[in-house]
Amino acid sequence: MKILVLNSGSSSQKSCLYEIGDVIPKNSPEPIWQAKAEWNGDRAEVSIRTSRGDNLKNRITVGSREEAAGPMLDTLWSGITRVVSGPSEINVVGHRVVNGGQNYREPIVVNAEVRATITRMSAFAPLHNRAELEGMDIIAKRFGAIPQIAVFDTGFHSQLPESAYVYPGPYEWLARGIRRYGFHGINHQYCAERTAQLLGKDLRSLKIVSCHLGNGCSLAAIQDGHSVDTTMGFTPLEGLMMGTRSGSVDPGILTYMMREGLFTGEQLDELLNQKSGLLGISGISGDMRQIVALMKEGNSRAKLAFDIFVHRLRSCLGAMIAALGGIDALIFSAGIGENSAEVRAAACANFGYLNLMLDSEKNQSSPQDQDIAEKDSAVRVMVIRAQEDWAIAKKCWSLLSANVGSTGASARLETD
Ligand code: AMP
Fold it and tell me: Separation of 145 CA from ligand 1 center, angstroms?
């Protein structure tokens, strides 16, 4: 089965193509083809790579997502990066959809009704859901009636207990869809499953805290194989401090600023999403690499940004561990989680009382899909490479194979 995965960001379009036979491999394979278009204003940088080693880089002028994504998708069947004979060779397209709301937990084939719900949810996640709908339209135009599957970042959190998802505002908020949804679910779930696989344990027997620390940051408390608490809420703004997002701040600050006429709602939105976090505090950068480098040069604002990031990470970690009533494994994933030994060491430093002991040599050794705790640590500490696209491809395969399976064909997962 050839599965195209689309990850549509507000100013980027990423995509990759996987091929899965009648058994899902245990380890994620290289995609056959992967592409990324990122634009700033009307200039887009497009880069394409194949598993054969072909590389293509291009700069194009664009006025819409389609003008960036269209030529990018054409390279699947034309030029040096050609990997299929034409669109008909691809069986299914999977989309990462950030907010599926209360309606959708599991991946679902996109039809008119699903589209309408994703459109309705755009009011809650305007930057994301609209980009994803555009991605679906581009595919429909180029691929015709190919099955398109939506995989939701909120899905993994759909079994949060009521006490974790209802905000303590007026109860009527809930009926209006104002509740905690949680995000990064595709990666939190993948990391939890990968951790259980690497430790040789049944996922349902583990209490896990997963730290997705990238441009966006969130934690998930995982028990019995599903999320029971998480730091992001109604939007991906709640919780931890992030690259350019504030995370949780006293809502009284916002009502004060609006009351004083200092900012409109839209301006506050921009302030909290794009001008806060590591960037807001350091005044220089929202990139943790730069923050750490500046801190080492003695920049006090960068040091403060790092310290706030760690302080909030530790507080939220404590909250997640309390929600679980213990912890067997702590996972670090995404750009910062996978690459910053400094953040991992600082995050773990205050949990010695739980007998959580990081092996500092392993922590420094660029680990990947590896346990970096000391041998007799009471808590395993895992570094897991984020593989959202592969996780989406697997879900598409499972959904389609289940349908095919009911008509006689067989499909199964590779096991130990
Ligand atoms: P992601 O959203 O997962 O792509 O993560 C992107 C973020 O990861 C960047 O903004 C950086 O802050 C961070 N990052 C990537 N590499 C490193 C590194 N070597 N050290 C610290 N942070 C890193």
Answer: 38
Sign of CA dihedral 253, 255, 261, 265: positive
Q: What is residue 117's predicted lDDT score, i.e. its pLDDT?
A: 92
pLDDT at residue 158 greater than cutoff 80:
yes
Measured CA to CA, the distance from residue 209 to residue 327 in angstroms comes to 7
Give me the active site residues, please. 153
In sequence order, the 6+-apart residues with CB closer than 8 A to the CB of 43 are: 59, 60, 61, 62
Helix 251-259, helix 265-274: angle, nearest 10: 140
Counts of helices then strands in the chain (DSSP H, E): 15, 16
- What is the per-residue pLDDT across 267-279, written as a single tens digit (0 to 9) for each? 999 999 999 999 9
Short-list 217, 218, 236, 235, CA closest to 227: 218
Instruction: Name residue, tokens 């995989």.
Output: 151
35 in Cβ contact with 75 (< 8 Å): yes
The dihedral region occupied by 355, where left means phi > 0, alpha psi between -120 and 50, and beta the remainder, is left
Residue 38 Cα, ligand 1 centroid: separation in angstroms? 17
Residue 403: per-residue pLDDT: 73
- Structure tokens belonging to residue 319: 């909250």
Check pocket membership of 287 for ligand 1, CB cut-off 6 A: yes
Q: How much is the pLDDT for 412? A: 37
pTM over 0.85: yes
Cβ–ligand 1 contact at 412 (below 6 Å):
no
pLDDT in tens, 225-270: 999 999 999 999 999 999 999 999 999 999 999 999 999 999 999 9
Reported in sequence order, the residue ranges of 304-349 that DSSP labels E, i.e. its strands, are: 329-333
How many A from CA of 215 to the centre of ligand 1?
7
Does the pLDDT value for residue 410 go beyond 50?
A: no
Q: Does ligand 1 lie within 6 Å of residue 340's CB atom?
A: yes
Q: 18 is written with which tokens?
A: 């996987």
Q: Closest Cα to atom 23, ligand 1: which residue?
A: 336
How far apart CA 114 and CA 106 sit, in angstroms, is 12
Average pLDDT over residues 372-397: 97
Ligand 1 pocket test: which of 288, 366, 387 has the largest number of ligand atoms within 8 Å of its C-beta?
288
Q: Where are the alpha helices (DSSP H) in 29-125?
A: 65-74, 112-121
pLDDT tens digits, one per residue of 189-213: 999 999 999 999 999 999 999 999 9
| Amino acid present at 291 | I
Residue 132 DSSP class: H
Rounded to whole angstroms, the Cα distance separating 413 from 136 reads 28
